[in-house]
Known about the structure:
The protein is of the alpha/beta class and 222 residues long. It is 51% helix and 17% strand.
Amino acid sequence: MAEHKIAAIYTGAALVKPLSDLLKETLPGCKVMNILDDSMIAEIIETGYLTKAVKRRLYGYYEIACASGAELILNTCSSIGDAVYGAREFFPIPIVRIDEPMARRAIELTDSIAVLATLSTTLDPTIRLLERCASEMGKSIRTISALADGAFSAITSGDAQTHDRLIAETAKQVSDRCEVILLAQGSMARMEEPLARLTGKTVLSSPRLGALMVRDMLGEAK
């Protein structure tokens, strides 16, 4: 796959290395261009929603990706996921939401899904994604939202232990009301197996499923 090049757009530093490593493993030989702007998520947290200013910056990065010869853009942040749909109308290369394959897998498995996030601004976009996918798949689902309050600030300050503990506590609180726990942010992926052991439920995260989707799309484009 040496001839392929993709651009990954990040709003937080915590996901860059683990996802970059995963993409290298899943797409050997593929060139990956990483673009990080944590001011986007800071503005979303401050305002509580995806602003026009953030969309403009994001679309500017999409332009840079296209100008750099990328064949595909991977949108890695769930809080800006809704911006993808408008962008797909006028950008010439595919734009992938990293969490879409995870949402579809959850819906295939059950109609009872808990969305677990460390940022409140991620919950609504992820639930909208689930509802969009369920509608496209002709299915009806029930979702519950679970916020691990304080976990995001813990991980951004380097306190991974507190981050993981708060996520685990929140997962335990909702595990008896769902069949699948969906981790709304890629930075939570390392908790997938620990939470599955803790709760006895199926737990899904986005990075690996998203990387596999990108691999399949690039394979079709060869």
